[in-house]
Specification:
480 residues; 19 helices; Serine Threonine Protein Phosphatase 5, Tetratricopeptide repeat; alpha/beta; Rossmann fold; 7-stranded parallel sheet; 44% helix
Length: 480
């Protein structure tokens, strides 16, 4: 192994240990020394992308992954870098919907050498065979929204298949495997073999649950068109840019019926009355909201720190300044100490009163910690999805800002389906005002917190039967 390769391995080891500052110093020195051959510089950019991700630097991550995609010699890893780049773009404020769309359509050019499988024959099945493709089917934020589809479709009309690209499993995986569906692990196969395995099962409709998440690995299978009808949704929140994708699952909130939304998608929009159905996990159900003893209002944000943009911090500063006795708890989804330190510094630089702000690492006990929060403050332009639904279920109102395109309206869709569209602001001033109005009515807030779960359980957001019925009808319409 040459010296520069050993140094890259050392940098990877430092990142794995959470030593981001040391990794950056070593990477900067390696790049400055010019030791890495030009044709291998994509490896350096890839590591910068991972490093900036660990520092919650969305702009840096986007630039690094873009550089990695442009300099990589291998088409498959080019696609992976570009998917990571597209994902990172959604954290950035100031990008227009049109700019986001134009970046996504570039992705199709990375499939110039891909040969689709021969057209599917007209299958004659007694039941519709529907497949769901994901990197894995472990417990995750997406699982809280797709579980009902994998386990609840009418067995008289549908035969369900789950295709996992990786072999990783947990209790949730094993529950799915025992639910009666056909579960296939594609690990160990190359992309062509994966597509042919799905084709062999004669799938009528194939749904990609990941899109550009996880490096877009599922899209590399979908691009070969293993099924005649293909759609994406739930685990991805924008157009895939892929011509082999026929439909995208959405609703009239994320993509209004005004004709403009369709212009931002390569896929046809497949609108349901509500785009999501939230099904809480067993640990969520075990936790119940209790009356808080503290009189001080505590705001919270339990989100990936990458989502906390400067405009979000500016709103938080105004809210805390208008309520001098209030507190803010910001909790990450990772346990990276240096990431927490970076976020503390950013909040301080944004002028927040840090004596009333607590910045936390991610925690396995996060469900119990919702009890410490009175009001959740959502992020933008990349809002919460499962984070918003989970907060509501745990008895915490969520103040959110509506956006101007699909991915910026995730919380809008969830709040609308939950019956709490009054907590959705149309401007940053309205966002601040809503948070203050909720906070000053302490008696009303306490009643709302105690009743939230019951109201949510009777809302469209948790109406599993209606959601499944609407999804089944939409799938049947795709096949006509």
């Amino acid at each position: 192994m040459v010296d520069w390769q050993a140094k890259l391995d050392g940098i990877c080891s430092l990142l794995a240990k959470g030593k981001t500052t040391a990794a950056r110093k070593m990477l900067d020195e390696l790049r400055g020394a010019g030791e890495v051959p030009l044709e291998e510089m994509w490896r350096v950019h890839e590591l910068y992308g991972a490093m900036f991700h660990d520092l919650a630097d969305a702009e840096g991550a986007a630039a690094a992954y873009s550089n990695a995609a442009q300099s990589d010699r291998f088409l498959r890893s080019q696609r992976e870098h570009f998917s990571n780049y597209l994902f990172a773009l959604h954290y950035l404020p100031g990008l227009s919907p049109e700019e986001l769309y134009q970046q996504h359509v570039v992705y199709q050019g990375l499939y110039r050498d891909t040969i689709e499988l021969p057209p599917c024959p007209a299958y004659q099945h007694d039941r519709i065979r529907i497949g769901f493709l994901a990197r894995d089917f472990r417990e995750s934020s997406s699982a809280r929204f797709y579980e009902c589809l994998l386990t609840g479709l009418d067995v008289r009309a549908f035969e369900v298949y789950a295709y996992a690209m990786e072999s990783d499993e947990d209790d949730f995986t094993r529950q799915l495997q025992a639910s009666g569906l056909t579960y296939r692990c594609l690990s160990g196969q190359n992309l062509e073999q994966m597509a042919k395995t799905i084709r062999w099962d004669e799938i009528d409709v194939l749904m990609d649950l990941s899109g550009h998440a996880d490096g877009g690995m599922t899209l590399m299978v979908m691009a070969q068109r293993p099924a005649s009808v293909q759609l994406c949704g739930i685990g991805w929140f924008d157009t895939t840019g892929l011509s082999a994708m026929d439909y995208f699952l959405t609703d009239g909130i994320m993509d209004p019926l005004d004709g403009q939304a369709q212009l931002l998608f390569k896929e046809k929009l497949l609108r349901l009355p509500h785009g999501f159905c939230f099904q809480p996990s067993v640990p969520m159900r075990r936790q119940t909201r209790k009356t808080r003893a503290e009189s001080t209002i505590t705001f919270g944000c339990f989100q990936n720190f990458m989502k906390i943009s400067r405009p979000v911090m500016d709103c938080w500063r105004e809210i805390l300044n208008n309520l001098p006795d209030s507190r803010l708890v910001v909790q990450d989804t990772t346990r990276l100490f240096e990431r927490r330190a970076v976020m503390q510094k950013r909040l301080e630089n944004a002028g927040l009163p840090m004596e009333r702000v607590e910045v936390r690492l991610g925690s396995d006990a996060y469900l119990t910690q919702y009890q410490q929060i009175d009001i959740m403050l959502d992020t933008f332009p990349y809002p919460g999805g499962a984070a918003t639904a989970t907060a509501l279920y745990m008895g915490v109102p969520v103040v959110a800002l509506g956006g101007d395109h699909h991915s910026a309206r995730l919380s809008s869709s969830i709040l609308n389906a939950a019956g709490f569209s009054e907590w959705l602001a149309d401007s940053t001033d309205a966002y601040i005002k809503l948070a203050l109005q909720l906070a000053v009515d302490k008696e009303g807030l306490a009643r709302t917190q105690l009743m939230l779960r019951t109201e949510l359980e009777h809302s469209a957001l948790m109406d599993k039967d209606a959601y499944i019925g609407n999804f089944e009808q939409a799938v049947k319409n795709c096949l006509r």
